[in-house]
Amino acid sequence: MLPSVLRCARSASTRLALHRPLAHFRPHMAPDPSRPVESSIRTKLTDALQPDHLEVHNESHMHAVPPGSESHFRVLVVSSQFEGLPLIKRHRLVNEALKEELSTCVHALAIQTKTPEQWGSNPNLAKSPPCMGGSRGDPTVEEKLKAGRD
């Protein structure tokens, strides 16, 4: 587990994916110390849900946040632990695994959960809509971003 200081540190925004051994998926990607929040999310979801397939995408760059932020994420979790569970219970499992990040440094988390059977019939990650958040209409956002870098 990463120290909370590192978990909430800002780093380069990028897309990462972790895949368990399935013939048509890329191999496991090692955690990147320059992306501590992504690494923490990946580790905790892997430990809690033993996914067949896991994708963690940092979408912070799509929002009005300082460069390198780790505050907005989209996850895709494919796990047999979701068998027979309604969507709300699946999402609660993800939220419970990431409760520390959600209460500290992660501002937004889009969750997509599938069973292995659902993933096999539709192996796609939903696309994020463009950010329409309040900061887009805030004329002082540039000043706030500058202050955050100082």
Outline:
By secondary structure, this protein is an alpha+beta fold. 33% of the residues lie in helices and 17% in strands. Residues 1-30 have low confidence and may be disordered.
Can you describe what's shown?
It is a single chain. This protein is α+β, with helices and mostly antiparallel strands and 150 residues long. The protein has a single domain, classed as GMP Synthetase, Chain A, domain 3, CATH 3.30.300. Helices cover 33% and strands 17% of the residues. The protein has 6 helices and 4 strands. The protein has a 4-stranded mixed sheet with strand order 1-2-3-4. The radius of gyration is 16 Å and the shape is globular. It starts with a helix and ends with a helix.
Gross geometry: globular
Reading side by side through the largest sheet, how are the strands ordered? 1-2-3-4
Low-confidence stretches: 1-30
CATH superfamily: BolA-like
Task: Work out the count of structural domains.
Answer: 1
Beta-strand level of the residues, as a percent range? 15-25%
CA gyration radius, whole angstroms: 16 Å
The CATH architecture designation is 2-Layer Sandwich
- Secondary-structure-based class equals alpha+beta
Number of helices: 6
Write the layout of secondary structure elements.
Layout: H1 4-7, E1 15-19, H2 36-49, E2 53-58, E3 72-78, H3 87-97, H4 99-104, E4 108-114, H5 116-121, H6 141-149
Parallel strand pairs: 3-4
Antiparallel strand pairs: 1-2, 2-3
